């Protein structure tokens, strides 16, 4: 097989293993696929997911970082790297990756909302409010943007605005757990 065909097959095999909950062999197959065809962002995303499934956040971060170096225009890779870093407590680096993701695709509501969340984690509540307002304007039907907006308003001393934002989150999804 040609390297690109082998990479495609290994990536498909890695995905199947991942879906079966077999993270370790999935990671091995996806590492090989990424080596053979490093410009395929989807392989790096799957590799990071495999390491996440294995509860190996450091390896997931490494996979996403290697992926962003090979695919610097991948919003998804920067986004996943940012969220994984936030989850690992590396908030400043996580926000930097999310900022990169937003710079690549400024109108993707999930990425904008997650950047707002990251700013809130850093205590940058004015920036969090600005991004959350943007997320709400992009996707008013998504509760997460409203919720982060509520957190930002609350932190900035605007309890009535916070309450309205939380209520808006609940109106979009009555079971939206963070808003309860």
N/C terminus separation: 54 Å
Strand content: under 5%
Helix content, binned percent: over 70%
**Oligomer kind:** single chain
Mean pLDDT: 96
Low-pLDDT runs? none
Count of DSSP E strands?
0
Global outline: elongated
Largest sheet: none
Q: What is the radius of gyration?
A: 18 Å
Description:
The protein has 180 residues and is mainly α. It is built from ten helices and no strands.
Describe the structure using short key phrases.
180 residues; 10 helices; 78% helix; elongated
SSE blueprint and pairings:
Blueprint: H1 3-19, H2 23-36, H3 41-53, H4 57-70, H5 75-87, H6 91-104, H7 109-122, H8 125-138, H9 143-155, H10 159-172
Helix pairs in contact: 1-2, 1-3, 2-3, 3-4, 4-5, 5-6, 6-7, 7-8, 7-9, 8-9, 9-10
Quick recap:
The chain is an all-alpha fold and 180 residues long. The protein has helices spanning 3-19, 23-36, 41-53, 57-70, 75-87, 91-104, 109-122, 125-138, 143-155, 159-172.
């Amino acid at each position: 097989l040609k390297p690109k065909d082998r990479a495609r097959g290994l990536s498909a095999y890695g995905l199947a293993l991942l879906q079966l909950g077999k993270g370790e062999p999935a990671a091995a197959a996806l590492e090989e696929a990424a080596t053979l065809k490093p410009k395929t962002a989807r392989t790096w995303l799957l590799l990071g997911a495999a390491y996440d499934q294995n509860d190996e956040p450091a390896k997931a971060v490494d996979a996403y970082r290697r992926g962003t170096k090979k695919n610097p225009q991948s919003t998804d890779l920067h986004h996943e790297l940012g969220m994984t870093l936030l989850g690992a407590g590396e908030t400043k680096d996580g926000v930097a990756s999310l900022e990169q993701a937003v710079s690549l695709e400024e109108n993707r509501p999930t990425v904008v909302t997650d950047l707002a969340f990251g700013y809130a984690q850093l205590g940058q509540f004015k920036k969090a409010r600005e991004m959350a307002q943007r997320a709400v304007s992009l996707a008013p039907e998504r509760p997460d943007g409203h919720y982060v907006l509520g957190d930002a308003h609350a932190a900035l001393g605007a309890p009535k605005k916070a309450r309205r934002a939380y209520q808006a989150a609940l109106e979009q999804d009555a079971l939206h757990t963070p808003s309860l």
